[in-house]
Design a protein that fits this description.
The chain is an alpha+beta fold and 228 residues long. The protein has helices at residues 14-26, 43-46, 68-76, 87-102, 105-110, 126-146, 158-173, 178-189, 192-203, 209-218; strands at residues 3-7, 31-34, 57-60, 63-66, 117-121, 219-224. It is built from ten helices and six strands; from the N terminus they run E-H-E-H-E-E-H-H-H-E-H-H-H-H-H-E. The protein is globular.
């Protein structure tokens, strides 16, 4: 089986990180192809490999799976471990993934992903406070109910993959998710696949103006560890 996973910039692309880290963590082999964000809108260029004109996309022979959730579901039909084996843990993980896929809009907008920097954020809005409080609650429930160190039990699943970009956001913006959830963040940031993604993000030299403008609007950059 020869997969090609097409993703974008390591610093910016939170949606790309989800299937990438899932496949790495589960040992699912794939060819790693990066298509950088070259402009604020990449639809026309990305349409050459993705029907939505967006990343990520997973190519499997003459078939393409798109959208991070679509890719996770596609992989779950073909590989064990995407979802927990325990029924209760699996139900929790699937609901948590769906919530991340459709929710947390303020967190996404106000705390844009950028792996290689540290930011003193603007005063958080009430909506951002609600998103952070929900993260604290959701992660705490999973860790308490299923014993950790991952969100749905002792092994890495799609639940962890879908919140992996948030782990980077927590560090970038010093978001207070509480001590229990912070232990999951620290555990995730120390995962070999997450360390590899971070190393590749720090090595990137390209910048894209729209993403950099979103970062500047999020707060004051206090450290930038990216290559120049």
């Amino acid at each position: 089986m020869a997969y090609t996973l097409i993703t974008a910039n390591r610093n910016y692309s939170s949606w790309s990180l989800r299937p990438w880290v899932l496949m790495k963590a589960l040992g699912i082999a794939f060819e790693d192809r990066v298509e950088p964000f070259a402009a604020a809108t990449n639809y026309a260029a990305f349409r050459s490999f993705s029907p939505t004109g967006q990343v990520p996309a997973l190519v499997d022979g003459d078939r393409t799976a798109w959208d991070s959730l679509g890719i996770a579901l596609y992989l779950a039909d073909r590989h064990p471990g995407v979802w927990p084996a325990d029924e209760a843990a699996r139900a929790f993980a699937q609901c948590a993934v769906a919530e991340m896929h459709s929710g947390f809009a303020t967190l996404r907008n106000d705390c844009t992903m950028n792996v290689g920097v540290r930011v003193e954020p603007n005063m958080p809005s009430p909506a951002l406070h609600r998103d952070i409080a929900r993260l604290r609650e959701l992660w705490g429930q999973g860790l308490d109910r299923f014993g950790g160190p991952f969100l749905a039990g002792s092994v890495f699943t799609a639940a962890d993959a879908f919140y992996a970009p948030v782990a980077f956001r927590v560090r970038t913006y010093r978001l207070d998710v509480g001590p229990v959830a912070q232990r999951w963040v620290d555990h995730m940031l120390d995962h070999p696949a997450m360390r590899q993604w971070e190393a590749e993000a720090l090595a990137e030299t390209w910048r894209e103006d729209a993403h950099e403008a979103e970062l500047a609007a999020a707060g004051r950059i206090v450290a930038d560890y990216r290559a120049t």
